[in-house]
Amino acid sequence: MSSPSIAIVGAGLGGLVLARVLQTHGIPSTVYELDAAVDARDQGGSLDMHEESGQLALREAGLYEEFRRLTHPQGEAMRVLDKAGTVFIDHEPEDGEGGRPEIDRTALRDLLIASLDPGRIVWGHKVTAVRPLGGGRHELTFAGGGSTSADLLVGADGTWSKVRSLLSDAQPEYCGISYLELRLSDVKERHPDSAALVGPGVMFALSDNKAMMGHGGDHLHLAASLRVPRDWAVSGGVDWSDTPAARDALLEEFTDWSTELTDLIRNCDDPIIPRLIYALPTGHSWARTPGVTLLGDAAHVMSPYAGEGANLAMLDATELALAIAEHGDDVETALTRYEAAMFPRSAAAAEKSAQGLDLCFAADAPRGIVAFFAEAGAPEEH
Q1: Cα 233 to Cα 271: distance, rounded to the nearest angstrom
Q2: Is 278 helix (H, G, I), strand (E, B) or coil?
Q3: Which residues are paired to 17 by β-bridges?
Q4: pLDDT score for 382
């Protein structure tokens, strides 16, 4: 029998890993992506790849050695501070220590895209509707009126997934945290003090239900985060597209933080972008529905405070691809096997993420997260 036609919605890391691992097993698929081109928007900062998930996925994809060449030296370093700039943890692994190498999200995505056969990704195809056709087949309708159908539909389309509606009525809920996305370019030349403050790896500066977090390197990718109502970014009268006004408004929220930390706001590039943190209910699952499933944020979006999102998406994609390869045209057996493992794994990760949020935005932060890291083996500053 011929292989089932497979449509993947979303060219994020999960959708791309799924297409790549399927391709290594000789199984064709088509990825439909709403962006018009590979460079249509910024892909964000740095990611740490976990050995048991992200790295496993890259090994199955046949891309591990190329990935290692793109990782950051010293990217696993970590600093934890409070609002006064007091350093609680300053940990920089020695060469060869640590199992979670860092890579720019854009570089990782580009690596995956380049590994796919020409035409595997169809750019500029925003899904506006999905509907069952019977017998496990589904139809996708795109902005502009075109459509296609597939024997297997995989929603890798993120937090506000269109495909999820075929399986679940659950909607992501606001986690109580909003953040402003900040970037400082060429920091070693332009802002060496800020480069030294953040360090080469990840920085957590935490106090009073507020945080500045992000990754170091040649460019700093940061988030200035606050525990605020969901409408905070739109109810305060701030025009966030006016970067000087946005800087002033954000500095008002961090008036009692040290100058070295507020300089990260004061000197940031244009623009400052407001974001909200959403999560699906912990333990989100659905009844087995013929011909369709979800992976990554579409299945289990959670807060980022356990560092699991990208890694889970890549592991989901790998396990789904391997199940499809093993079971051939028996799509339902493949999906049943995949979901049986994915549901409990994602529930455990979502619980960890919720706990991480509470530690980062606790009244006594950063003490709780310092204790957490100490228990995990990261030494305190002396």
Answers
A1: 15
A2: strand
A3: none
A4: 35
CB 290 within 8 A of CB 332: yes
The amino acid at 252: E
Classify domain 6-72+99-171+280-356 at the CATH topology level.
FAD/NAD(P)-binding domain (3.50.50)
pLDDT tens, residue by residue, 214-244: 988 888 999 999 999 999 999 989 999 999 9
Position 378 scores a pLDDT of 54
Mean pLDDT of 26-49: 89
Q: Where are the beta strands (DSSP E) in 240-343?
A: 273-279, 292-294
Q: Which CATH class is domain 173-279?
A: alpha beta
CATH 3.30.9.30-classified regions of the chain: 173-279
Residue 78 and residue 370: Cα distance in Å, rounded? 11
Q: Which of 182-186, 342-346, 370-374 has the lowest mean pLDDT?
A: 370-374
Phi, psi for residue 351 in degrees, rounded to 5: -65, -45
Among 82-96, 100-114, 361-375, the least confident range: 82-96
Looking up tokens 């570089």 gives: 107
Q: 108-112 contacts: CB < 8 A, separation 24 or more?
A: 108/13, 108/47, 108/67, 108/70, 109/12, 109/13, 109/16, 109/38, 109/43, 110/38, 111/63, 111/66, 111/67, 111/70, 112/13, 112/16, 112/17, 112/20, 112/61, 112/63
Which part of the chain has CATH 3.50.50.60?
Answer: 6-72+99-171+280-356
Which sign does the torsion angle of CA 331, 171, 36, 315 carry?
A: negative
Summarised one tens digit per residue, pLDDT across range 317-327 is 999 999 999 99
CA atoms within 13 A on the CB side of 336: 6
Instruction: Please give the mean pLDDT across all residues of the chain.
Output: 93
Say if pTM beats, i.e. exceeds, 0.90. Answer: yes
* Residue 308 phi, psi dihedral angles, 5° rounding: -105, -20
